[in-house]
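re: ur question from earlier - yeah i can do the single chain one, its not a big deal. heres the input i used so u can compare w yours
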Amino acid sequence: MPATVPALPTTTPSALPDHVLAAVLTLAQRELAQTSEQKRLAFRSHDYQLQEIFNELQMAKKYPILDTFVFSDSGPEPYSPVLSESVSRLQLSGLIGRENPDYEVVFLRQAADRFYEDVLKSEFGDPEIQKQLAEIASQFLQRVRTV
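and the output i got, formated as tokens:
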């Protein structure tokens, strides 16, 4: 009789880091639209600030889905190459953009909302995962300065 493999808990971070980041940013934009007059998520951010926010949220050990971003403590500040690469891939795919001249303003494009509806909504269909992502999005909004 073959051994059965136990099902993984729903909080296991099996999702792609790019998808987690895209979902968080899209849900943050939706929350922003509901709670303010801003319809577009745009925020001032240098790479180290985004790293700091996600590291803090991960260190809280409240959101297992963020374990997909592995942080290294070997430098002066915790750093996740995966998070940095995810930001770059979302930019290359047209889901986020950066405004000139210094690329310090990051904004979400309309394509991100469509990607969330078409792909991510079903990928993150588990209510526990949805709850985590919504809370992460709220925490993210509290930590960034929108423009």
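Residues 17-35 form the longest helix (19 residues). not sure if urs matches, ping me
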